């Protein structure tokens, strides 16, 4: 059975997708050694809003062995891209809650060309076989096999996902390896993000102690301080259940940075908000590459985060 996606919904996805690829292309040309990460995040997020969208999550800038969930902290003013860095930038845009999720790796290290190439190829091959009725594990198989052929490993505990309205992870997981226990299939009328992560390390990530990204976990709560209640209300109002970071709260919350961090931490301990720790390759000296596109599965496949859209599908 083919579920037809509402035309208005498709339009919103396409708009979110176009904003995402425009920002992605801007970032790819802007990134170079010396660029300040904090400035890059501020510029990219401002550009999303200027183009008529909202960030669906804080801009992720993950360098070298860091794989995901790293966004610049307010006091990381001096952190820059260095010569030799492999930089993953992951961009989320939503229009009325409909999310486009896309990522690109920009390398300033010639020795890692093949690693970058393998992740790019894994995504292209995945997109060439995706469609209604295709098993999630078939995508995982293609990604794992591509990584292996280059002598690398796909990261097993990171994967693609279905997308819902105001939901980055809407239930389905698209594995980055041939997971034989994963029996799910792509369904018409749904949006998915496909995101191979490939490394020259151990092939899995671990949580680091650093946290910069959070999301609201509960909307009903009691026994909160006045300050906590005010912050939670503000988060619920502005971001709903989408991920956010301290940069986004700093001005409006009207709290000094240390008070803001203390309040966020105490809300984490009370299970009101959840944290997304920075994820790092288990081998801290390794490098990780990632590419990601968002697709709408219909009778055809629309790659909304790529300007060539459905054309690319027929390659
Ligand atoms: Mn992403
Ligand atoms: Mn994603």
- What is the number of beta strands? 15
- CA radius of gyration: 19 Å
Shape: globular
**Highest CATH level, the class of the largest domain:** Alpha Beta
Extract low-pLDDT stretches.
none
The total count of helices amounts to 7
Features:
globular, Arc Repressor Mutant, subunit A, 2 domains, 4-stranded antiparallel β-sheet, 315 residues, Creatine Amidinohydrolase, 7 helices, 26% strand, alpha+beta, binds manganese (II) ion
Task: Give a description of the structure.
The protein has seven helices and 15 strands. The mean pLDDT is 94. The chain is an alpha+beta fold. The chain is globular. A hairpin with a 3-residue loop joins strand 14 and strand 15. The longest helix is centred in the first third of the chain and has 24 residues, at 7-30. It has two domains: 7-207 and 284-313, Creatine Amidinohydrolase, CATH 3.90.230.10; 209-277, Winged helix-like DNA-binding domain superfamily/Winged helix DNA-binding domain (Arc Repressor Mutant, subunit A, Orthogonal Bundle). The strands form four sheets. It has a five-stranded antiparallel beta sheet with strand order 7-6-8-14-15. It has a four-stranded antiparallel beta sheet with strand order 2-12-10-11. Helices cover 33% and strands 26% of the residues. One manganese (II) ion (MN) binds next to loops.
């Amino acid at each position: 059975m083919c579920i037809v996606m509402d035309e208005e919904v498709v339009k919103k996805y396409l708009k979110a997708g176009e904003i995402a690829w425009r920002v992605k292309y801007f970032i790819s040309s802007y990134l170079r050694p010396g660029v300040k990460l904090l400035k890059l995040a501020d510029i990219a997020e401002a550009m999303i809003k200027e183009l008529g969208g909202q960030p669906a999550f804080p801009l992720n800038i993950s360098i070298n062995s860091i794989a995901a969930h790293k966004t610049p902290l307010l006091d990381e003013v001096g952190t820059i891209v260095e010569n030799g860095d492999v930089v993953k930038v992951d961009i989320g845009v939503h229009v009325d809650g409909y999310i486009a999720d896309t990522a690109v790796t920009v390398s300033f290290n010639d020795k890692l060309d093949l690693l970058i190439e393998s992740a790019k190829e894994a995504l292209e091959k995945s997109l060439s076989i995706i469609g209604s009725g295709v098993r999630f594990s078939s995508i995982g198989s293609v990604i794992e096999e591509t990584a292996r052929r280059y002598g690398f490993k796909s990261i097993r505990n990171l994967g693609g996902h279905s997308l819902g309205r105001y939901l980055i992870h809407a239930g389905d997981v698209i594995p980055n390896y041939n997971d034989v226990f994963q029996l799910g299939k792509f369904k018409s009328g749904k949006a998915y993000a496909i995101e191979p992560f490939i490394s020259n390390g151990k092939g899995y990530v671990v949580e680091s102690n650093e946290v910069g990204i959070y999301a609201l976990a509960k909307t009903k709560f009691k026994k909160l301080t006045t300050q906590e209640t005010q912050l939670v209300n503000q988060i619920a109002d502005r971001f709903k259940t989408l991920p956010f970071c301290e940069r986004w709260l700093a001005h409006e919350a009207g709290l000094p940075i240390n008070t803001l961090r203390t309040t966020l931490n105490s809300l984490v301990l009370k299970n009101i908000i959840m944290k997304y720790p920075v994820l790092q390759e288990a081998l801290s000296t390794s490098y990780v590459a990632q590419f990601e596109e968002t697709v709408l599965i219909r009778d055809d496949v629309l790659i909304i985060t790529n300007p060539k859209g459905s054309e690319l599908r027929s390659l």
